[in-house]
Structures are given as C-alpha cells and as structure tokens.
C-alpha cells in the first residue's frame, strides 16, 4: 500500500514540476497579452502655448491647453492575436474652446504591440496603414531603439533608449524620438497673412515634434508622455510665418499615477505567472517526489522481513503430534523403585 501511495505522489510531483517549467515558457506567453477591452483616458497639459485662432486668423499666445486622449478597445474585432483600438484626442483651451480634434483606429499585435494591417484601420476617418508601435510598448521592453508611429506625420520614427530613471516609484526606461519638420497638408489662406500681395495663396502646413516617453519595461505601459509640438504655416520660400500650435504637452501628475498603477497591476500579473506560480509548483512538486520516493524505498525494505515470518523456519510451539500415542500411565511403585522390589523376592 505504501509503495502504491509513494508511486502516486512521485507521479503527481513530477507533473507539478513539469507545470512549473511550462508555466513561464508556455502558459505566461499565452496569457500575458494586451487586453482586448482596453479602456483609458490620459490627460496632458501645456502652459503658455501659442495657437492660431482660425476665426480671426491671428495668433494667440499665453494659452493654457488640455489634451484628453481616450483609448477604447474594440472587443468584437479583436481576437487571440490582435487588439483593435479606437482613439480620440481633443485639445482645448481654458475657455473649453476646441483647438484640435483627431481620431485614430489601429490594430496591434497583442504580444509585441506592433501595428498589424487589419480591421479598417484609419486616421481621421481616412483608411491608413499604421506601422511600428502605437500607444504602448511590448512586454519586456528592452534598452534599444523602437519604431514608434506618429499620427500627425503619419509615419514611424526611431524612439531611442536614452536612460533609466525612477518615476512614480517605478524603474522606467526613457525614450526620445524626433520628428523633423515635415509638410502634412496645404491650405488656402489670405495672402496678406503670409506677406503676399495676392488675395489668396497656398500655404504649406508643417509639423515638428520632440516626443519623450517613460516606459515601465515589464508591462510596456507608458507612465509619462511629453511632446514639444510645433505646427506652422510657411510661405513659398519655406519660411515659417504663422504658428498654428506651439506647445509643450505632458501627462498630468494624476495621469502619471494612473498609468503607474496600471503598470504595477500588469507587472504583478506577469510576476505571478512567470515567478510565483512556477516556484510554488516546483517546490510542492519536489516535496511530493521526495515523500513518494521515501515511501517506495521504505516499502521495499520491509518486504524481506515479512517473507521470513511466513517461512517454515519460524519458531513453533512444541505440541505433541496428533499421530503420537498417548504415554502409558505409570503404576504406583514403592519409594525404592523397581530394583528394590526385585531384591525382596524370595
């Protein structure tokens, strides 16, 4: 019985040890993914910005801006391999006047966070194929250069690892990317706005940005984002004439705390699957194997002793055989015995 129990324990323990090895290698990659039901709102602010009032076609300086970015997962179009995000960004001033409004729909690999061509992706309602990283970094972010997509320029740029820092109680990797001035559109404006004598002229709308991202490496969550954005109207000679927007936008303190919590939660789940569960399974499995081996060995040692007890060589009680005749009852004799009686006969 003990040998059977021991063998069962060895089998169960071995199974748990295999599970300990398989969990971080097979189970964790299958479960640690970008969620399909992503839902978040980040807020960035800028002080003393300059914007163009399109109503009066004049610059406004000293403006405080607030940018709200909402990310919502399209669960219906997502699957085991991809997630689909619908994103909206609205920038307003202190008077709640809308400065810019943009929308984005992108599909991304749930493990690498790289954009994938799928699911009617678009920018501002127009079909467009994204590339590189969008809105998040991969699990296990490395100290290297990644391609990160810029929605305004509509292309990916190198986001270079710069340094490792502490932010909101987390160790984060700092990445920087630079968008050199690029023409993003052309609009018709009054000629005098650009110093021209013509009534209406075509003005190139140019965009430049320096984006800095602080990323928690285990989860890939962007804890803090910052942009130094400049959009201008240029004349025919390529000179900047009017600022459409000139602002330094950065995540608010509350948004940084919110993102840090999201990173900690994700990191805790990753640690559970890659470290805690494997260690518990491994230790429990090893303990069961050792106990099982002990029971099997002990049972093996006891078998020879039991066999000895069952052999004919064991001690037996010395009882008379049923076949042996009963001993004859002895007749009473004088105290002197038989020889003494014989000597008294005449």
UniProtKB/TrEMBL annotation:
Pfam families: PorA
Highest taxon of the lineage: Bacteria
Region (Disordered): 306-346
UniProt biased composition (Low complexity): 320-335
InterPro entries xrefs: PorA (IPR021424)
Keywords annotated in UniProt: Membrane, Transmembrane, Transmembrane helix
Membrane-spanning ranges: 276-297
Protein name according to UniProt: DUF3068 family protein
Species annotation: Micromonospora taraxaci
């Amino acid at each position: 019985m003990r040998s059977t129990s021991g063998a069962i324990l060895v089998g169960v323990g071995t199974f748990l040890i295999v599970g300990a090895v398989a969990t971080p290698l097979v189970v964790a990659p299958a479960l640690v993914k970008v969620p399909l039901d992503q839902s978040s709102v980040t807020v960035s602010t800028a002080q003393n910005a300059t914007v163009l009032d399109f109503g009066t076609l004049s610059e406004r300086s000293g403006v405080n801006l607030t940018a709200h970015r909402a990310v919502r997962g399209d669960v219906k179009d997502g699957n085991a391999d991809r997630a689909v995000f619908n994103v909206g960004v609205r920038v307003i001033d202190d008077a709640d006047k809308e400065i810019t409004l943009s929308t984005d729909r992108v599909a991304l690999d749930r493990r690498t966070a790289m954009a994938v061509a799928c699911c009617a992706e678009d920018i501002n309602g127009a079909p467009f194929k994204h590339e590189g990283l969008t809105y998040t970094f991969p699990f296990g972010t490395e100290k290297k250069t990644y391609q990160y997509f810029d929605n305004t320029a509509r292309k990916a740029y190198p986001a270079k690892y710069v340094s490792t820092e502490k932010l909101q109680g987390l160790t984060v990797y700092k990445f920087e990317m630079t968008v050199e001035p690029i023409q993003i559109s052309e609009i018709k404006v009054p000629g005098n706005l650009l110093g021209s004598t013509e009534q209406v002229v075509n003005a190139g709308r140019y965009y430049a940005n320096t984006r800095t991202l602080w990323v928690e490496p285990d989860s890939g969550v962007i804890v803090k984002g910052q942009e130094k954005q400049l959009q201008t109207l240029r004349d025919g000679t390529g000179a900047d004439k009017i600022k459409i927007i000139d602002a330094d936008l950065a995540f608010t303190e509350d948004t940084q705390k919110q993102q840090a919590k999201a990173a900690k939660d994700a990191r805790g789940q990753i640690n559970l699957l890659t470290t805690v569960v494997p260690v518990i399974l491994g230790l429990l499995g090893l303990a069961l194997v050792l106990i099982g081996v002990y029971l099997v060995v002990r049972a093996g040692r006891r078998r020879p002793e039991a066999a000895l007890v069952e052999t004919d060589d064991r001690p037996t009680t010395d009882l008379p055989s049923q076949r042996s005749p009963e001993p004859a009852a002895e007749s009473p004799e004088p105290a002197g015995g038989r020889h003494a009686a014989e000597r008294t006969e005449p």
